[in-house]
Amino acid sequence: MKLYLDTANVEEIRELSWLIDGVTTNPSLVAREKRPFHDVLREICAIVRGPVSAEAVALDREGMVREARELAKVAANVVVKIPLTVAGLQAVQVLSREEVRTNVTLVFSANQALLAAKCGATYVSPFVGRIDDAGGDGMALVEEILNVYGQYDFGTEVIVASVRHPGHVLQAALLGAHIATVPYGVLKKLFGHPLTDAGIAQFLKDWQRVPQS
Ligand code: G3P
Predict the structure, then answer these.
(1) Is 61 strand, coil or helix?
(2) Ligand 1, CB cutoff 6 Å, lining residues
(3) Who is most buried in 3, 20, 173, 198, counting CB within 10 A?
(4) Ligand 1 site-directed mutation target among 9, 26, 124, most atoms within 8 Å of CB
């Protein structure tokens, strides 16, 4: 499973650039940086070789297509995030013919994911954390989407998004999701285990008793 970092923070991306396969941003994450969007995007795309998702904010088809073409010019690894609306999917159809890669976002049902794939989306992003927050089962949706996609040959990849904790990452991997996009804090938690720390401390303590030559 590929791991993306879900952030627009350049320091976080730089620190984990040796590990991650890509980056996803959204307007809320970009707003936290208090910098012009294209400057941030250009900098991220120079650090990361893999796909970098940048969201279009227009709501009409023509506006989204126009914005997507501009975003795609920023760097070769830009993927344009498009919300799952009728206009959004129409834009995805146009962009797919132009070979502009798209990440259809705000996906909350398997039928939405089916439509996105039929329109030529490169990626779909089901928001598992927001479904869990609303009392649903986000990972059950991921399983459904993977089952639907497994019946056909769409080529659309599933990005498990709105990840809240390491359990979401493990479940995504167990289900065989193509990608999980993970916030910085959650990704850092994946490294740790108390028994690893205790093991290192014990080995170092025992090493003191080894005679030095
Ligand atoms: O980038 C999209 C998604 O990961 C947002 O997550 O935490 O705002 O639900 P969240």
Answers:
(1) helix
(2) 6, 24, 26, 127, 129-130, 161-162, 181
(3) 20
(4) 26
Q: What is the pLDDT of residue 17?
A: 98
Q: What is the largest CA-CA distance in the chain?
A: 75
Catalytic site residue 2?
A: no
Catalytic residue among 2, 34, 73, 81: 81
Residues 6+ apart with CB under 8 A from 2: 21, 22, 50, 178, 179, 180
pLDDT (0 to 100) of residue 138: 98
Q: What would the pLDDT profile of 60-118 be if each residue is shown by its tens digit?
A: 999 999 999 999 999 999 999 999 999 999 999 999 999 999 999 999 999 999 999 99
Atom 9 of ligand 1, nearest CA residue = 162
pLDDT tens for residues 103-141? 999 999 999 999 999 999 999 999 999 999 999 999 999
- Architecture (CATH level 2) of domain 2-207: Alpha-Beta Barrel (3.20)
Domain boundaries, the chain: 2-207
Is residue 213 pLDDT above 90, yes or no? no
- Cβ atoms of 33 and 9 within 8 Å: the answer is yes
Centroid of ligand 1 to alpha carbon of 210 (angstroms): 50
